[in-house]
Amino acid sequence: MKRGYNLHICLLITLYFLFSVNFIAHAQIKSTIVRDKSVVDHFRFVNNNREESMWSALYGAKSGKIYIGLCTHAEAAHLYEFDPKTEIMRHIVDLTKLHDERGQGINTNGKIHVRMGEDEQGNIYFAGLNEDTGPEAIDPSSYKGAFWYRYNPKLDKVEVLDMISPHFGLLGMVYEPTYNRVYGLAEDGHLYMYDITGDYTRDLGKVDDWDICRTIFADDEGKVYGSFPVAQIWKYDPKKDQVIDLPNIRLKYDMRVPPRTASKPMIDRKVIWRVIEWDPIEKVAYGIMGADNMLFRYDVHRGEEGEIDYIIPLTASQYWKNIDPKKIPFATLALTIDQKERVIYYAPTGNSSFDYIGNSWDVRDEEAFQAKLSGGYFPPVSFLISYDLKNKERKSYGQLITKDGKLVFGLGGACYGAKDGRIYFVGAIEEDNKDFIVGEVQRRWPFSMGLIAFDPNSNEN
Asked: Is residue 441 within 8 Å of residue 357, measured between CB atoms?
């Protein structure tokens, strides 16, 4: 009897800690609804290559140009360049042509699924992936492998650097300038490293199991960090040349939120961070938890394992007060920091969790589950939320909509324009031209892929 009583008390204390942290953080932050809708510029991708998804692969280079990697199931991954000065979109490379994969009846490099990086010379680094790319009848061993790539803007050339793995491409990547390396987290749960100076790749070992963390980051000392279930963090220390599971620090998540996929509860991205970005000014990382879109600050230099401060959820504004947490859509990858103005921008969905065409049954199960909670199927439109790091203020700029009146569905990435100060996103845009429709979100709402730009200094938004 006493043992059961003690367990009950421990559970109550745990629940109090989980929810009291939220309350303390929220009480110190001002929340403002700036407007109901924000109008954004919309730019199409050229050549009509029929891409239908994008995950993380959006990068604002020091030159001011924007680089985008788009994915195509059963086809090819493509790299684009957008020049904000001229507003010209340019196609750079088709990975299946680069590897001579087209027409060979083999599995192809159909995805660029990583945040890109840039070295001191302005070269852009990225990596490939084969995931659901090709009919099931095709022998998976026909895949030529996943590779690291470098785009040289001066030569306008994409170079294949080295093989990552014969079978598994990257879901997360970070360029690390201290040691001039690129690190990648692959589908097999292994951390891979490419040493640019030495021109070699190493498998640093297994750091994760399914479900794989989508974003990793590197600190100012060259250490690399990732998240893995349940609510844990690993770190790679290049001085020790060792991957370390941090035993004491834990990510906080709302236990009232069910697994992302109700049919496969072991695939539970609510318990890891969804997206994270290193802030070189404060020398901390800012991230978003998968379950409730909670913004957190991870100071890796406080203590041996670092300390995490939970700030406030960056959900759409309709979820700011007294909302059942089960109704909050799963977090997106669309997070970036305006380093000049010290503002975080994030684009959550407002009505339901988002996937582009939702081929897999676990995605359909998730859609059905949320439809029951919400009272029907609603398009997963995007909202723009910011958090001012100086003023400690959360703002909602409302639902995103293009200048020609099209809905902005889910967004797969965000970046800051280094020269023009605009905030860029890429994702699914409502489409009514049959020549450009590439699929239907939740098999209901036609879309094409698009780049959009939000200008914080414009009164038109």
From this structure: yes
410: left (phi over 0), alpha (psi -120 to 50) or beta: beta
Contacts 24+ apart (CB under 8 A), 20-23: 21/252, 21/310, 22/294, 22/310
pLDDT in tens, 207-266: 998 778 999 999 999 999 999 998 999 999 999 999 999 999 999 988 887 766 666 665
Give, in degrees to the nearest 5, the angle at Cα 110 between 210 and 146.
Answer: 65
Residue 366 in tokens:
């998730």
- The model's pLDDT over 408-460, given as tens digits with 9 standing for 90+, comes to 999 999 999 999 999 999 999 999 999 999 999 988 899 999 999 999 988 66
Partners of 277 in the β-ladder: 286
User: What value, to the nearest 5°, has the Cα angle with vertex 152 and ends 150 and 156?
Assistant: 120
Q: How far is CA 417 from the centre of its chain?
A: 17
- Residue that the structure tokens 């031209």 belong to: 433
Using CA atoms, how far apart are residues 81 and 452, in angstroms rounded to an integer? 14
Helix, strand, coil percentages for the chain (3-state, nearest 5): 15, 40, 45
Q: What is the pTM of this model?
A: 0.91
